[in-house]
Design goal:
With 208 residues, this protein is α/β, with parallel strands linked by helices. It has 6 helices and 9 strands; from the N terminus they run βαβαβαβαβαββαββ. It has a single domain, classed as Formyl transferase, N-terminal domain (Rossmann fold, 3-Layer(aba) Sandwich), CATH 3.40.50.170. α1 packs across α6. The structure holds 5-O-phosphono-beta-D-ribofuranosylamine (GRF). The site of 5-O-phosphono-beta-D-ribofuranosylamine has 12 residues, from α1 and β5.
Length: 208
């Protein structure tokens, strides 16, 4: 039987475990998101995300910074892979590199990221520990379009997560993950349904 792919084509960039990748792939398989994952690209050959993709029969590519003369050349190689796979939307799922300006220009308002805090609070690599150390009572998850800044792009969706008495990094991040697995597939579905309209800093969500 021939597999008929439907919906938008996603290119997922991941550096680590890939549990968000798994949640997105599962939501697609469950028929909740009209999309397919055309390629998973990692800058880390040891990323478990690659293993998760392979198990699902999703093509994978490794693009490592060390194989290129400079950062722009590395970014161009990532763009080439995304174009080759004809992706409509680039999905960052624990990608530990700042997306270079050339990638942003190649996919305007077509790159999404998930951040484990309520932006604009606690941007950067350490969103969960920074929130915990600051002593906030509520943190959360943000899905946003990627611009040329660090976690500064227009916000698509957010969900609050309460910090509980006695939380440590692991317990808090676990609950943040659960929220991530819920809102990332939803945001991708809204994109696939052409319901996201970017107007400056604001993302309007059209009714379904
Ligand atoms: C997630 O918490 C995400 O918010 C952050 O990196 C983590 C990736 O986790 N950007 P995983 O690789 O999807 O398990």
């Amino acid at each position: 039987m021939e597999l008929v792919e439907s919906g938008v084509k996603l290119g997922v960039l991941a550096s680590g475990s890939g549990t968000n990748l798994e949640a997105i792939a599962q939501a697609i398989d469950d028929g909740d998101v009209p999309a397919s994952i055309a390629v998973v690209i990692s800058d880390n050959p040891g990323a478990f995300a690659l293993e998760r993709a392979s198990r699902r029969g999703i093509p994978t590519r490794v693009v490592e910074l060390k194989d290129f003369d400079d950062r722009p050349a590395f970014d161009r190689a990532v763009i080439d892979e995304l174009l080759l796979a004809e992706v409509d939307l680039v999905v960052l799922a624990g990608y530990m590199k700042l997306v270079g300006p050339e990638i942003v220009d190649a996919f305007p308002d077509r790159i999404m990221n998930i951040h484990p805090a309520l932006l604009p609070c606690f941007p950067g690599e350490h969103g969960v520990p920074d929130a915990l150390e600051h002593g906030v009572k509520v943190t959360g998850v943000t899905v946003h379009f990627v611009d040329k800044g660090l976690d500064t792009g227009p916000i698509i969706a957010q969900e609050a997560v309460e910090v509980e008495e006695g939380d440590d990094l692991e317990t808090l991040h676990n609950r943040i993950h659960i929220s991530e697995y819920r809102i990332y597939p939803r945001a991708i579905r809204l994109f696939a349904e052409k319901r996201l309209v970017v107007e400056g800093r604001h993302v309007r969500v059209l009714p379904g």
